[in-house]
Amino acid sequence: MFEAIEDPDKRGQVGIGTLIVFIAMVLVAAIAAGVLINTAGVLQSQASDTGSETQEAVANQIEVVHASGGVNESTEDGYVDSVNLTVMKSAGSNSIDLSSMTIQYTSDTTDKTLTHGGTDTAIGIETVTAGGSDYGVVSGSATSAEFATRDIAGDDGGDTELISTDDRVKITLHIAAIEAGTHNESSTGLDLANALEGEGLEGGDSATIKLVDQSGAQFSYGVTVPSTFGDKEVVEV
C-alpha cells in the first residue's frame, strides 16, 4: 500500500503554507464554536425569562370577591359616585404588588388609566385655602387619576400586597372624579362639588374595570349599576 523510502536523501516535508492553513482552520473552528456556545447561552436565558414571564402572566390572577357602589342622592335620580372592589389573589398565584398595578377604567364616555395613589379610601371633597384662594380638592387617595387600597383581612400583605390567599384588600375608585376628569379646581370647594354633582354612573349604566398587575396578568370586571336605587346608600354592582 505504501512505498518504502529506501533513499536516505528523500525526505517528507510539510510546507509552511500548509501549516498556516491548518492553524487558520483551527482558529476559525474555535471562534465559530465560541460564537455558537455564546448564542446558545443567550437564547437559553431568553427562553427561560420568557417562560417565567408567560407563566406569571397566566398564573397570576386577581379575583374580585365583592363589588359595591356608593349612591349619591344629590340629584333626583341619584347616581353611583364611588366603587369598592374587594380582591384576593387566585390559588397558585405569586405575590401581587397592588402599588405597581394599573387599572383601566372604561365606560360609555370615559377611558382612563389609573395608578396607585395611596391607602386613604375616604371619598369626599374638602376646601383648602392657599395664597388667599380656596381650592376644592377631592379628599382621600382616590382621585380622577388614581385608585386607593386598604387592607381588610389577612396578616401577610398589608394595604398594598396580596401574599396569601387569606389576604383581602379593598380597592376604591372615585367614579365621580374619574367621569368628570377633575379632582382639584383652583376656585372654591363649592364649585368643585358642583362640578362633580351628577357625575358618575346612573341607573342602568355599566363600565369595565381591568386590573393589570406587575407581571402583565389581566383581570376584567364588569360593573353594572341597578336601574333604580330606592332608598339604598350602597348597592351591589
Task: Describe the fold and architecture.
- The protein has 2 domains: 14-59; 63-236, no CATH class.
- It contains 3 helices and 14 strands.
- The chain has helices spanning 16-59, 175-180, 189-196, and strands spanning 62-72, 79-89, 96-97, 102-107, 111-118, 124-130, 133-139, 146-153, 161-162, 168-173, 184-185, 206-212, 218-224, 234-236.
- The strands form 3 sheets. Strands 13-12-4-5-8-10-2-1-14 form a 9-stranded mixed beta sheet.
- The N and C termini lie far apart (95 Å).
- One of its GO terms (biological process) is archaeal or bacterial-type flagellum-dependent cell motility.
Query: What's the SSE pattern?
Result: HEEEEEEEEEEHEHEEE
Give the number of DSSP strands.
Answer: 14
The main β sheet shows up as: 9 strands, mixed
Q: Which strand-content bin applies to the residues? A: 35-45%
Poorly predicted sequence stretches spanning 5 or more consecutive residues: none
Instruction: Give the rounded overall mean pLDDT.
Output: 85
Please work out how many helical segments DSSP would assign: 3
Tell the overall outline. elongated
Radius of gyration: 33 Å
Helical/strand content category: alpha+beta
Query: What share of residues is helical?
Result: 10-25%
Measured between the Cα atoms of the first and last residue, the distance is: 95 Å
Q: Provide the spatial order of strands within the biggest beta sheet.
A: 13-12-4-5-8-10-2-1-14
Query: What number of domains?
Result: 2
